[in-house]
Protein: Molybdopterin-guanine dinucleotide biosynthesis protein MobA
Amino acid sequence: MNTRTESSLLAGIVLAGGLSSRMGQDKARLLWRGRPLLTHMCGLLEQSGARPVRVSGDYPDFDAVPDKLPGCGPLGGLYSVLPILDDGPAWVVPVDMPRLNKALLGRLRDAGPAPCVIFQGQPLPMRLNIDDACRKVVASMVQQREGPRSLHALQARLGVLELPLSDDVAPWLVNCNTPAQWEEVAS
Structure:
């Protein structure tokens, strides 16, 4: 893979390939401030300077990448998107974290060098350094049916820098998996 140019230092990845089974409807299509969550999250990444922004999941309107291995969760989404991105850092965000903001993405961007950077105890959002080593680790993890297929396990294998999670940050990192959580965040 090529390395991204100076004019586009970070890519963006929106993980939207899940089944939304606990929500009972497609989370990516829930309306947040008048527009679908998927549109909101892509816009947030673009406004923060991400180029390109890619979506994992079956969303043709977003030139998204359908999951190659359905049922593998966020790791499966990464596995599907990583081959089409150039080497370099990328923000990885879930589709269901509407309160995430540019300032928090900036903190991830500006953290020191590391294969991945997260807020303490929060697997997402994440700044992930995409390179051949990262792609190989993700591929080996999704192909091992018995092994751990979680973002936590990926981060541990790659090496993670955890930023402190202060009380002022935690409310912005809430993701919505159930109708009750959505109602609380959307109100």
